[in-house]
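During the reporting period the student researcher (J.K.) took over the structure-prediction task from the postdoctoral fellow and processed the backlog of single-chain submissions. One of the processed entries is reproduced below for the supervisory committee.
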Amino acid sequence: MNKESSQGQLVRSLGLWSVFFLVISSVIGSGVYKKVAPMAEVLQSPGLVLLAWLLGGVLTLIGTLSNAEVASMLADSGGEFVYYKKIFNRFFAFLYGWANFTAIRTASIASIAYVFSQSVNSLLPLPNLSSEWESITVLGFLTPFDNIGIKLLTIGLIAFLSYLNYVGLKLGEVFSKSILYIVLFSILGIILLSFFSEEGNWANLQTHGSAYVEHSWTDTVFISAMFTALLSAFWGYEGWSTIGYLGGEIKDAQRNLPLALVLGMVAIMIIYLLTNFAYLYVLPIDQLVRDSGNSIAAVTVVQHILGPTGGIFISLLVLLTTLGCTNTTILASPRLFYAMAKEGLFFKSAKEVHPQHHTPTKALIYQGVWSGVLVLSGSFDQLTDMLIFASFIFYGATTIGVFVLRKKMPNTPRPYKAWGYPVLPALFIVFCITLLTVSLISKPREALMGLVLMFSGIPFYFYWKTKNSDEQPSST
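J.K. obtained the following structure tokens:
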């Protein structure tokens, strides 16, 4: 049997509710447990913390609504890579795909899996190297040998989940969905436990932190603090766009993909607001701030109610949540690299689909290897800051695409149209530009890392473009 005849095909096997649960599973990771404490530290007000979660959710939803309109027109395997070819050109589509391979999706896999390993380490300490090895740096800031036990477990987890999704899309989907059910019921349990606990107090929600200083909403100090808090919230909401990569495997994708995106993000907003409301109801904000440097907020809250047993329960819950989120990201992202390879804009073997499992096997391997390299290269915070910066370049670009496609393709059917057009999409574009500017100023190293990795693909683009031109048969 020759190679062409053994080549498999991606199969449309995912219905609306499968995609809905994959949206939620791709987003709910470490943010719902960890980010309330640093947000409390910078804002010093329970009301403002909840406002930041709400604003972050609304802004993310606006971006999702714009993405959903484009997805309803152009849904296919590869997500935004497919969209950008229509909206802009092949070069910009390639930059998007390359940025996801080098910085966005692989860094997301690395950072979420890293939190899983940190949670394991809190329950069962992992081995480390000597201080001499841990102090070795590369380029002055990369520390590949520190926390080596955590990093090796993280790489092992990525390898295991990559194999799980190599075996089949439905197996990976069932794994993520099963974990998600446990996580959602556990989070609901935390919310109910907090509200019915004698430890809770409505006064906690009305009491500012000891370092709180009143500022007007137009004051630059307040705006800067809110922006810093929003960056934490956006990490909590990150990941929803990966589901677009599965467009070629979703039944009635033009309808089901945008609908699942919108319903999923609304559900996540509600979950996040209720969960953080529960945290702030149980603990005074000063205690959250005090514990922000060395504890996970959810662990502190449940320990406060149930004692050490509650801490073990939450640690196990964080393990499960990050496991499910990592799996969904690993499941979806290779479809982007598969789409690039089919266009001749990625490593050629990445377009191979397993004849029995119907999965992009080589794309999964490339993704897993580079994710492992990123695990060794940086810390959790470096990775998340880098990927958030890079992500918002393309969130803004997709929203610009709504305007472009309404001009270029006015008569193309749109099963879904962005709500609030043109005002809300325009406001989201302005926000993206502002976020990128603030990030360049406040986090220049991480922002520049993201840009360097993205633009490192330019030589590859021209190499693959030239190679594909040479391989085309000449016309007579």
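The committee noted the following: Confidence is low (pLDDT under 50) at residues 1-6.
J.K. will present the remaining backlog at the next meeting.
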